[in-house]
Amino acid sequence: MASSTTPQLQHSTPEGIIKKCTTYANLLTEAAIADENKLKAAQEISENFETIVQSSSYPAFLEHAIPKFLLFLREGEPQFVAESTVQQIRKLLLEILHRIPTNEHLRAHFKSILSLMFHLLEIENEENVLVCLRIIIELHKQFRPPLQAEIQHFLQYVKTIYKELPVNVKQHFEVVSISATGFLPTESQGNNLPGASSQGNTPVGTPAASPMSSGDGGGGKTGQQTTIPKAISSLKVLAELPIIVVLMYQLYKQNVYTVVADFIPLVMNTIVLQPSLNARKSPTFNKEVYVDFVAAQIKTLSFLAYIIRIYQEMVNTYSQNMVGGLLGLLRYCPQEVAHLRKELLIAARHILATDLRNRFVPHIDQLFDEEVLIGTGWTTKESLRPLAYSTLADLVHHVRTHLPLPHLSLAVSMFSKNVHDDSLPVSIQTMSCKLLLNLVECIRQKSDEQGSGREILMRMLEVFVRKFQSIAKHHIPAIFKKCQQAADNSSSSSASASSTNSTTAQANTTTTTTTTSTTLSSTTSTTTSTMSSVGASLSTVGNGTSTTGGGLSTAGSTSSSSSETTTQSDQDTTTKKPLLHTSSAISNTFSVPDCRSMVKTLVCGVKTITWGAGSCKVPGGNKPFLPLETQLFTRLLKYALQALDIYQVSVTANGQYFLRPPSSQQVRMKEEKEILEHFAGVFTMMNTSTFKEVFSSSIEYLVERIHTNYALQIIPNSFLANPNTSATFATILVKFLLERLDEMGTNMDRSNLYLKLFKLVFGSVSLFASENEQMLKPHLHEIVNRSMDLACTSKEPYNYFLLLRALFRSIGGGSHDLLYQEFLPLLPNLLQGLNNLQSGVHRQYMKDLFVELCLTVPVRLSSLLPYLPMLMDPLVSALNGSQTLVSQGLRTLELCVDNLQPDFLYDHIQPVRAELFQALWKTLRNPNDNIAHVAFRVLGKFGGGNRRMLKEPQKLTFNEADTLGPCLAIYYPESVNPVTVSVGPVIERALAFLKTLPPNVSVLPQQSSINLDHTIFYRKQAWIVIKSYLVRKNLE
């Protein structure tokens, strides 16, 4: 019958299908119809159910069909043979009920459906009850019915299943209670549980093949049959029950609070059950049943994780069982079933997030065993390590103060390996670094007199140094290469607009991988799911699918995202690798944000470790670091300086990365400055002898790195600004610079760097006068004499005079008497040499520098009196010079007027009296009001003495030409005659500008009074004016 109707249904209208299916629903309750025909009718309804749902007659069909379905299921007898026709009908009808959309059309029927489902739970077989449970969950989620007696009865039914579990599971294998430490007893103790039976019995909790007879309702066929266990003894059903209990608690919290509390002892007894050692060795041991058993236990543990905060006091009573059960599940979870261990780790994370985590402290050494924590399965090692390590890291972080030194050492060992495991996501590597950083204080406090704590810390420092080395040798070059490729692609974009777009997108993809959490707290928050998601993670093991669970987000997604964001070249390389590979075989380059995060974590880590190691108890109280430890710090300096180059990578407005020019002296990021200061702090807390040992051998390398990355100047600046290291480092640095003083006259790049470093050394004298005066005193003569000598013979003498100016400005404040006394023997030759240079033929900016040097020699005025005549010409030049020189000249002149006798002063002024006072009168008209005010004050302090020198006439410019010379004729529309403007003064000013300004603009950045951009602009304009004038004259 059904076969003849099948083609008709396929080509019928929706209304026709509804009518036919209604007829089929009627057939289900007719006793005269054979079971085979009923099965075909149910199959037709199932195959056309989507069409029925979309029909306008769908509500009417439900009104008619649902009572028929429920009647068949209620009056029919449960079947326990999978091949039975009746069993197939019952299962198919339950699946149809589960497929009915939970909308308003179903509201009128959901109570009767729920009533039947609760009834079937106690009598049906495993397969059908699994469907019933899904129906119960869906209907309660959608319609939220009021509390009924059936729900209370259901909860009691679940309790019964848990109580009888030890008896039921012994039909499969002998079970024992695991110890509080998570280990199986050495000898079988299965007889201490009631209901023990032989393993040779036919299993009840799993389908089994047996001969089929003709009288079993299976349609008269003979052959093999599959027995389906009853639901009450099914492990698969048991695995699905916790999620419904959670749902009931959410819906009826007030009414079932006490009932749910009764589950806690049952849960605790359930999770400690394990097959005995004898059972595991038996040849009849059923591994599939064991997997179902462990799945049920893990679902039960997840249920405990959900309610643990609500019933924490009661759970604490059974904490010994909880600890032993969790450790046992980790130890004995089947290695090949990765999704079970994943759920177990998620549940463990929630349990360990409570105060009960302290119960695990005595047994935490087991969790440091990777075979216990992760297992030995290939899939678990590849996919679950991030989740496992983050879970353990959270536990160690919170209980670290309770851990003894041996356990802290185990933690350092495990997470040190993770730092160097490139197959792990960067977030886990960074998290491991942060955890090690948090253990430093605990290790320091618990270090014994034998120095074991310090040894652990130094091994930890070795781990960090090697990570710096890995970044410096592999990741930084790869990132720089990608940035260079992006820059090359961008520069060639004019050839093809389309290729530009694709190349830029590719470069951006390479360099903008999304960053993950970098702190333990953020890793915890992103990987730990909410309590509702724990309930959700309980739902899918029963039907054989793996759960994702709400908890695994950061650890799992980071690995996939980092593996997806590869360049085309990386993809080509990957295709050449073997088909079977591990993630560790793939070379993963850090993204720029990831690399910065890692470097930042490492820098903070080495600083904390250095502090901890220096504070640890050591034999004999020997605080300085040992020679091998000093070598470790030298390696740290080498590789960390290379790794810090990651901050040279900048980002454009469109998100593309590029390399900052090495000569750029601007620190673009606040983070970069902070990290460099932190790194300098690693060395400032060292013993002086260790510090000196490290930098005496590394100063050349440090300066070389600063030349490559100017932002690293913050490091020596921090050393010189710290009282513990200032004098030591200044001594090392000044010796290094003096050895290379001759290079300042040839290599402009190097000279600029050396000059800046000299300035840092000189500036430290003002910060710590007592120590650093002694540092600079032995080198003062060499600096001055060699600078003057090299300036006379070098190609670029300018920097030597800048060096002297920096020295004079730094120590010329009047508070460095020790240096002034050291400087006195140098004064005659120095002033004479500077006067000779000033009177020679030099560019104006050089003459200005000579004048400034004469006026700022670092000696007291009383020591300068014998050489006062040598200052008169520079003083006049200063008053006729730039604004800076005028100010300096006025200060010097006012100092002399205030402190010298008038007659003595006038005698020395007499040779230059005319030029001096004319310069003063000129200064009265200075546009700078402050300068003019000082000039008035100085003239007033002369007390009329200036008028005694009014003998020479003022210098006037006399124009002997009869005509204006070449002029510009400017015509205006309103004027008949043109307006003539002489170009002579313009040409003279332009020519003077070209003569006075330095042709080598590389020295201009040292001159604060000259703007480089303006200088280049005006030089070009001056040249254009002169060139145009000369061209015009030639044409005439």
A few lines on this structure:
The protein is an all-alpha fold and 1036 residues long. The strands form four sheets. Strands 1-4 form a two-stranded antiparallel sheet. Strands 2-3 form a two-stranded antiparallel ribbon. It has a two-stranded antiparallel sheet with strand order 5-6.
Explain how this protein is built.
The chain is elongated, with a radius of gyration of 45 Å. The protein has 1036 residues and is mostly helical. Among the domains are: 14-145; 147-184 and 228-330 and 337-349, no CATH class; 852-953, de novo design (two linked rop proteins), CATH 1.20.1440; 967-1001 and 1008-1034, no CATH class. It is built from 51 helices and eight strands. The longest helix has 40 residues, at 452-491.
User: How many strand segments?
Assistant: 8
* Beta-strand percent range: under 5%
Estimated structural class: mainly alpha
Average pLDDT taken over every residue? 81
User: How far apart are the termini?
Assistant: 119 Å
Low-confidence stretches: 1-8, 187-206, 209-222, 497-586, 999-1010
**In percent, how helical is the residue content?**
55-70%
Q: Which term fits the overall shape? A: elongated
Using only CA atoms, what is the Rg? 45 Å
How many individual helices?
Answer: 51
Largest sheet: 2 strands, antiparallel
GO biological process, one term: regulation of DNA-templated transcription
Biased composition (Polar residues): 189-204
Protein name: Transformation/transcription domain-associated protein-like isoform X2
Region (Disordered): 189-225, 490-580
